[in-house]
Design goal:
Blueprint lengths: L1 E3 L8 E3 L13 E6 L7 H13 L3 E6 L6 H14 L2
Parallel strand pairs: 3-4
Antiparallel strand pairs: 1-2
Length: about 80
C-alpha cells in the first residue's frame, strides 16, 4: 500500500502495488497478501519471513479475504506500523 498525500479530500488515499518497494520511512515493512495458495505454502512463507527478518524487514501478513473491509485493513496496518520501534 502506498499513500498518495495529494488526495483531494485532504485524507491520504491508498493504492496497492504488487511486489514493489516504497522508500522514505524507516519502518522497513513488507505487507504480504496471502491467498488460499498460502495454506499449502506455510513452510515456504516461514522461510521467506525469516529471510526478510535477516534483512531487518518487518512482515505483516494479511489474508486476501480481509481486503473487502479496507477501513479495517488500513487500521490494522497503521496499528502495526505504530508498534514498530
Amino acid at each position: 500500500m502506498l499513500a498518495n498525500p495529494a488526495a483531494s479530500s485532504g485524507e491520504p488515499s491508498l493504492r496497492a502495488r504488487r511486489s514493489q518497494c516504497a522508500r522514505g520511512d524507516s519502518k522497513k515493512t513488507v505487507i504480504e497478501l496471502d491467498g488460499s495458495i498460502h495454506d499449502e505454502k506455510e513452510e515456504y512463507d516461514q522461510f521467506r519471513d525469516e529471510e526478510m527478518k535477516l534483512l531487518e524487514l518487518h512482515v505483516l501478513r494479511l489474508k486476501n479475504e480481509e481486503l473487502s473491509e479496507m477501513d479495517i485493513v488500513i487500521e490494522k496496518i497503521i496499528f502495526y506500523l505504530n508498534t514498530i520501534v
